[in-house]
Amino acid sequence: MGDMTNSDFYTKNQRNDSNHDGGFGCSLMDLRSLMELRGTEAVVKIQEDYGGVEGLCQRLKTSPTEGLDGDATDLDKRKEVFGQNLIPPKKPKTFLQLVWEALQDVTLIILEIAALISLGLSFYQPPGESNEACGTLSAGAEDEGEAEAGWIEGAAILLSVVCVVLVTAFNDWSKEKQFRGLQSRIEQEQKFQVVRGGQVIQLPVSDIVTGDIAQVKYGDLLPADGVLIQGNDLKIDESSLTGESDHVRKSADKDPMLLSGTHVMEGSGRMLVTAVGVNSQTGIIFTLLGAGGEEEEKKEKKDCSHLSSHPIATIATDGAASANAPGNTSLVNGKMQDGNMENNQTKVKKQDGAAAMEMQPLKSAEGGETDDKEKKKANVSKKEKSVLQGKLTKLAVQIGKAGLVMSAITVIILVLYFAIDNFVLQKKPWLPECTPIYIQYFVKFFIIGVTVLVVAVPEGLPLAVTISLAYSVKKMMKDNNLVRHLDACETMGNATAICSDKTGTLTTNRMTAVQCYVGDVHYKEIPDPSSIPPKTLDILVNAISLNSAYTTKILPPDKEGGLPKQVGNKTECGLLGLVLDLKRDYQTIRNQIPEEKLYKVYTFNSVRKSMSTIIKLPDSSFRMYSKGASEIVLKKCTRILNEAGEPRVFRPRDRDEMVKKVIEPMACEGLRTICVAYRDFPADPEPNWEDENNILTELTAICVVGIEDPVRPEVPDAILKCQRAGITVRMVTGDNINTARAIAIKCGIIHPGEDFLCIDGKEFNRRIRNEKGEVEQERIDKVWPKLRVLARSSPTDKHTLVKGIIDSTLVDQRQVVAVTGDGTNDGPALKKADVGFAMGIAGTDVAKEASDIILTDDNFSSIVKAVMWGRNVYDSISKFLQFQLTVNVVAVIVAFTGACITQDSPLKAVQMLWVNLIMDTFASLALATEPPTEALLMRKPYGRNKPLISSTMTKNILGHGVYQLIIIFTLLFVGEQIFDIDSGRNAPLHSPPSEHYTIIFNTFVMMQLFNEINARKIHGERNVFDGIFRNPIFCSIVLATFVIQIVIVQFGGKPFSCSPLDLEKWMWCVFLGMGELVWGQVISTIPNSKLRFLRGAGQLSQKDEMPEEEMNEDQEEIDHAERELRRGQILWFRGLNRIQTQIEVVNTFKSGTSFQGALRRQSSTTSQNQDVTNVSSPSHVSLCNALSSPTSTAAPSGQC
């Protein structure tokens, strides 16, 4: 079903290949059916139908060694016949769809209904002139002009609703555009090594075509399907396609099929690309998943129950992270990340499931046990709500409830007052002909009530969060932080610990050999080649040149006088540099023995910690070259080359002496020590190469090289900033303990004389495991607080440490941990951490997939920038809250008391909407875009339990609220005497706007404007203008608001219930507004200690952080109730639902419910999903993708 509907070009391709195969020896369908085979079937099929891989290459007109010639017409033709390597994205939402979504807002719907009733009634003229009898309140001057003007209020409300909708839709639209831009940035980053015209080049993944020869190596994410031509010890993790956690061995003669979206876990090789884009295995699955479109959605509801066992779903996260195309959403984001919300809820949840399955393999790879309990846990979503979202959600609910109560009371009081006054005190009968007039009154009361609700609910919150995050993300690009998941940015501000890699992050990752021990002599600098025995020199040069990835090279510098360019593995580059220093050329040796002639390669992996290559010598005996961490390789050496170049016996005690005399001194200078060795094997009998333990022993050591990786110059300063900001930096490295300690001292992670721990992986495991070898949390708690350096650590150790710190209950605040990683094996730790940083340059695709932020320059100091931006986001939201809540409190109280005392709100519905617009939308723009300052790094992290609204902020909110209320009530009750004007109180229905109420409205807005300047500081600073010109957006918004306000007051007339004011009255309004600035100074003089009663609102207490599972059950109850209410038309309760919806919006940043819960809810709450889908904006989903990936062992949040 899905296949055919994918896209036009898909069907076009199908037609193409059925008619002709474009002059190639095989058609698209042949290749597709070939790629569906596995293992020996595939080998047989290739052999029989195509005459082996070579035959297949000939049919595809390519050469297994030279690749394609890269001719443009040929490439275009291949794209035409076999398709392009991208999956066509879904269309983004149109502006009209977004407008429609914005219109679904409950409050707006209530307002629209009220406005329409008001409009309808204003055109209805009651029969007969019996007005006198219908209640005293209407006895005003009802002349013709006024009666006609009755429609204006309804129309104005509708107009303001249109404004709000357009602004919201525009915001969503620009947000989506930004995310799509971000997405294409991430995509362009992904390149792949391809052989074209005999040269290895890096191509963007989307440019790969069928027939290309691609070089695959450790850590790659395969971008297309292909057949292996030649491989060394290649192991692939195919769990993203098959769900099988064991790594699959690939070899040209046993199982040559490589599939897109799978991860290379070990080894290297070359493959012939046979299927790209929608025709690759992953593409086909996506076609089934996403492009079925409408039919799919019908099925979706049914499928949901089977999803968890459905291998297809497994693809959703990174199973597909391949074909990236600049302008196109490609496999990376898959269909899911495409910002399409069509079935957002289901899809995001689908990803959760997918990701859950995704993580299983990593666990078992680490040797963890995958029992059912674990599997259950794996389904819990990746992280708890981010700190900020948790706090905002709570606050929004609190405010919403209060607003709801206030607005209900307002309406009840107004109706009762009117009824009692008319029918009880004046004993009037209810006359049928008066009914319309009474209804008009009731509608007016209702509108006032809704107005109170509108003002009470802070719609601006989700908006402010989004704007602030989107703005930060855009700016963080400039600081070399490519943010993949929006909320990571804010979480970073709360980070309390950073576990950093050493190589490449703290150091420059430019390895240079500076010392060596060869021929029984320890050279403190690289020796002259003449001083080394020629025999030794030959073996050494061969050992280094052949036993390293042929993709590793040293190229001439880009610019004159620069350092030579190191390409590939940096440690190997250091060794190749040694060969060049010894005045020899490694390339000539490689040319004599090209990569195909290497007999067998044991690639480097984290278990072996060494790499070996076997070659066949001319006399058909074998020689194996080995290199690796010195303490590991030396253990396997039984001989060593002496000063004459002859092997002599090398006993354990010689080894101990060497460690003391050579290796430790090197390590203490921060050098990484690599031992190079070799071993000869007889031709007959040929050894069993699979029996690694017997092959990798009895080596002969050639030399030990000390390689230096200098510390990046800016790192010590960055680490100092982190420590000042209350963040502990820990170094986790695979290097030996002495090297690690030396580097840590240079970086300033440890200071001599302090009480800290530097231990290696072995000791770490000994301390944290009990007799049975199980990790115990209380044992970890004894280790981590003092731990600063963890050396010789395995990826599992890293994961254990991160998990241990996160789950620890030692400190009252839960630790927020950031982790950096570059290798494939760092995946689990990156996923487990609160924020995972992957290296943009050195990082493998797998690490990038698991991360939240990619450091495009691999530099530690960029992490500090991320902390700064994260804290800035938090502060921006707080500024906005401080401003918004002041307005809310004042507006609600004014509307409420005004309505109760004078039967009419001093601030009319339309005015309220305008105030709401400046408060919400404009203020969130102005305050959320403040640039960060260094001062942010001078304080400790806020932590999870610190209230969102600090006591200083509460003081400011209440203080300014009091000032504004005093001014407004003074104006309301004695304003007519002060300004000598007619009183606007108790005006009849439809009376013209009074100057009195216009002054109140104008003063109110002026006070908000000046208070917006006060809100720029939340820590009680005195100078609120500090750095105001660094934020042009802020200045322009304040000015624009001021100008529009003048226009509204002078020319707004009846729709805005304003009458023009003269200059003197204007001056008074501005003067009263400026009083805010003076009053702000008065407030900041009052010490907080005097105000004990100001406990913070929006605090996250322990019981709020309950496990996701329980939350879902609560959610479910709410949903059933919600549907009951929906049946009765109880509109008031919808206000509450609206808050929930807003919470959901905030949550769409990060789908916070667990997978199973989602499936449970899916059935019961299709209705609510409609709501959520409409309100939340598509863009959130695009970044949700990996956020929703659960971790292998994510603890339910309750334990944190």
Automatic annotation (TrEMBL):
The keyword Zinc-finger does not apply. Pfam families: ATP_Ca_trans_C (PF12424), Cation_ATPase (PF13246), Cation_ATPase_C (PF00689), Cation_ATPase_N (PF00690), E1-E2_ATPase (PF00122), Hydrolase_3 (PF08282). GO terms for molecular function: ATP binding; ATP hydrolysis activity; calmodulin binding; metal ion binding; P-type calcium transporter activity; PDZ domain binding. SMART domains: Cation_ATPase_N. One of its GO terms (biological process) is regulation of cytosolic calcium ion concentration. Residues 49-123 form the Cation-transporting P-type ATPase N-terminal domain. It is an enzyme of class 7 (translocase). Residues 370-382 have a biased composition (Basic and acidic residues). Its EC number is 7.2.2.10. Keywords: ATP-binding, Calcium, Calcium transport, Calmodulin-binding, Cell membrane, Ion transport, Magnesium, Membrane, Metal-binding, Nucleotide-binding, Phosphoprotein, Translocase, Transmembrane, Transmembrane helix, Transport. GO terms for cellular component: glutamatergic synapse; postsynaptic density membrane. Its main location: membrane. It catalyses: Ca(2+)(in) + ATP + H2O = Ca(2+)(out) + ADP + phosphate + H(+). Residues 323-382, 1159-1179 are annotated as: Disordered. The chain crosses the membrane at residues 404-425, 445-471, 880-901, 957-975, 995-1013, 1033-1053. It is a multi-pass membrane protein. It is found in: Cell membrane; Membrane. NCBIfam families: ATPase-IIB_Ca (TIGR01517), ATPase_P-type (TIGR01494). Catalyzes the hydrolysis of ATP coupled with the transport of calcium. Belongs to the cation transport ATPase (P-type) (TC 3.A.3) family. Type IIB subfamily. This is Calcium-transporting ATPase.
